[in-house]
Write a structure and sequence with these properties.
Helices cover 36% and strands 23% of the residues. By secondary structure, the protein is an alpha/beta fold. The protein binds S-adenosyl-L-homocysteine.
Length: 467
């Protein structure tokens, strides 16, 4: 089994420094199940290729009883694909032979570790069970790799036997060597259904350690985690929880560290906004509440804390936002009773939808400005005429306040997806017309600190049914 890593970035000797392996030598390392050889098939000033060749001893594997290949077929213990495919053995080899590079250490030239190099990686044989090529792509492409995949036929002499589950893969990307090795370390065994080791909590820690900085942002993180941990349910569940926690801390750290004035103020502003909406919903005595355009579920998270809300729904047009909400609310880990209390569904505020009916209150927080103005008519009918909850809370930015954001250029809006932003008067005129049309009373509240001339950064209209 052969893994080759090539770069053309000068000076090409950088790669050998990073790997701590001399380009003129062939080095051999003893591994528990065979040998790992490292050598450079090509090294000149324009190009350098390092090869990691694994020489797995199938007999040793059986003696050590570590073979997880099909034990019911005795010959299969000796004759199997293990010596030839990139599998969990490859990760073990990367971790022991390239440990400094994998851990981002380079004693003589530490700044090299941060250097992004254009890499081309060839993996001679990669087994991809169910999902095949698309599985390989879904693992590597989100990390920026371009991939060239070739599938092997079972036997070129007998094409009628069909395709095998083996692929040759060439990956290209510009990134640090540390990142490249950590991707390979995690993703090669992710594809491997016959891991040679016993999967336990150590594997979970290794996954999180080597996945640090990229796994939590990977759209396939759930699949990677499950496959890497051999679908052991409690382990993958723990790993996913820990990934979600890491993301939360990271986000709050980000919020604190955000340099720009607008983001700093926005973070706390959104918390204030969610707090005020929750307070008004509690005061309304509503029991069944729906958050329309719930996004990643920040309001839902607060609502869940209050027993008054016996039924809580989150609706959004975006499936990916709903997935985020599901994850951030730890939906899969909620007790059956809590699960009964919370429902998330995909839908649009612009279409009549039976599922939006029957709630005491609806919150629509920082959503209307994302709708095209000409669609607001449909929106108001869906909410006030068709769904008709007793309480409706709508929040939207106050455009007058935009002059206060020093970093916001004059005349621009706060978010690239905003279709409009209203002054206090524009919002109030619109809301008062709606109240009059659909038999609601409406009152207004500022959100955030009020400035004398321009008001507060955000504004709320609180509608109550009945004149
Ligand atoms: N209410 C959330 C998210 C606000 S961002 C919060 O305050 O944190 C605006 C949200 O509105 C996005 O999640 C977007 O997907 C959603 N959205 C936009 N158009 C929508 C529509 N037509 N129907 C439902 N949701 C919509």
């Amino acid at each position: 089994m052969l893994l080759q890593i090539t770069t053309t970035e000068a000076p090409t000797s950088d790669l050998s420094f990073l790997l701590h392996k001399h380009p003129d030598k062939v080095q051999t390392f003893d591994m528990s199940l065979g040998k790992a050889h490292v050598y450079y098939p090509e090294y000149n000033e324009n190009k350098i290729t390092v090869a990691l060749l694994l020489d797995i001893d199938a007999v040793d594997m059986v003696r050590g009883s570590k073979n997880s290949a099909n034990e019911s077929f005795s010959l299969a213990q000796y004759v199997n694909d293990r010596p030839y495919v990139a599998s969990s053995f490859m990760s073990v080899a990367i971790a022991s032979v390239f440990s400094s590079a994998l851990n981002g250490k380079c004693k003589n030239n530490p700044e090299l570790v941060m250097k992004q190099l254009p890499f081309e990686v060839t993996i001679s044989t990669l087994p991809a069970p169910k999902g095949g090529e698309s599985l390989i792509r879904s693992l590597f492409e989100p990390l920026g790799y371009t991939i060239d995949i070739q599938r092997h036929t079972l036997n070129p002499l007998f094409p009628e036997w069909g395709e095998s589950k083996y692929y040759s893969v060439k990956l290209s990307n510009k990134l640090t060597l540390k990142d490249l090795l950590s991707h390979l370390y995690v993703l090669i065994p992710t594809l491997d259904n016959d891991k040679h080791y016993y999967v336990n909590k150590d594997e979970l820690n290794k996954l999180l350690e080597k996945g640090e900085g990229w796994l939590k942002h990977h759209p396939g993180k759930e699949q990677i985690t499950k496959r890497y941990l051999s679908n052991i349910h409690w382990l993958s569940k723990q790993a996913l929880l820990r990934l979600a926690e890491a993301e939360d801390t990271e986000n709050s750290d980000d919020e604190i560290e955000e340099k720009t004035e607008i983001s700093q103020r926005k973070a706390t502003l959104h918390e204030k906004r969610i707090a005020l909406v929750t307070e008004k919903l509690l005061e309304s005595k509503a029991k069944k509440v729906i958050d329309l355009g719930c996004g990643e579920g920040k309001l839902l998270r607060q609502l869940l804390k209050h027993q008054q809300f016996t039924s809580i729904a989150g609706m959004d047009v975006s499936y990916s936002e709903l997935l985020k909400a599901k994850e951030r609310l730890y939906y899969d880990n909620l007790s059956p009773k809590q699960k009964e209390r919370l429902i998330l569904f995909q839908g649009s505020l612009l279409y009549l939808d039976e599922r939006c009916k029957g709630f005491d209150a609806a919150a629509i927080v920082e959503v209307i400005e994302h709708l095209d103005v000409y669609r607001l008519k449909a929106f108001e009918r869906v909410v006030f005429e068709f769904s008709q909850p007793r309480t409706v809370i709508i929040t939207t930015p106050n455009s007058e306040y935009n002059v206060m954001w020093e970093t916001l250029q004059h005349g621009t809006m706060r978010h690239s997806d905003h279709r409009f932003e209203w002054t206090r008067k524009e919002f109030q005129d619109w809301a008062e017309r709606i109240a009059a049309t659909y038999h609601y009373r409406v009152e207004f509240h500022p959100i955030g600190d009020v400035e004398e001339t321009v008001g507060a950064p955000s504004q709320m209209a609180l509608f109550t049914y009945g004149n």
